[in-house]
Request: fold
Amino acid sequence: MSASKYRRILLKLSGEALAGGTGYGIDGETIRAIAQDVAEVVEAGVQMGVVIGGGNIIRGVAAAQQGMDRASSDYMGMLATCINALALQDALEKLDVKTRVQTAIEMHEIAEPYIRRRADRHLEKGRVVIFAAGTGNPFFTTDTAAALRAVEIGAEIIFKATKVDGIYDKDPAKHADAVKFKELTYLDVLNKGLEVMDSTAISLCMENKLPILTFNLRVRGNIRRALTDSSIGTIVKGV
Reply:
């Protein structure tokens, strides 16, 4: 493989990605495939942090729309991300990839508390650090958590792994004439209302000049390819 363009990256996974085709929970085959792709990146010498959502178990916003208190439902969503983080940790360590789970809500029996300097040290030692429980605050998404952690650990880019091969002007699953963008600016994303990450996350990335690359997670090996292949996905960056 060609030399990676990046030394340290932050991979953002949706919780739904772990469900595979089941739509709910954690699909064993899917999480093993993701773990294998992550392992290939680690073998290439790239330092990686991971943020996982919890939508395969519960989405705070959806629960709130059904009448649940928003703060309570968001905390439930944070706990769902911890379940997913432990599942990914297990799958990675079965491949002999060293990992650490750090949570924004302290739960000493299963994970370390999030400490930036400790996370940085783990990354330097080649461990994959999985950041769980979002930012630890309700009303903030795991997209925002991904942007925040990426900035804190000095990641050079966010890899936003999705179920499509980039960013389109409209949903390609519903519209045959949807047009894929190769490159966008942060303001393009905000002004066009494109659903890449939420506006808080995009603004944080824009302020810190942190690029975002979106690509299809379902194609095996795409995480590794994205390290070197500029034709993969859609990149969001400054002018």
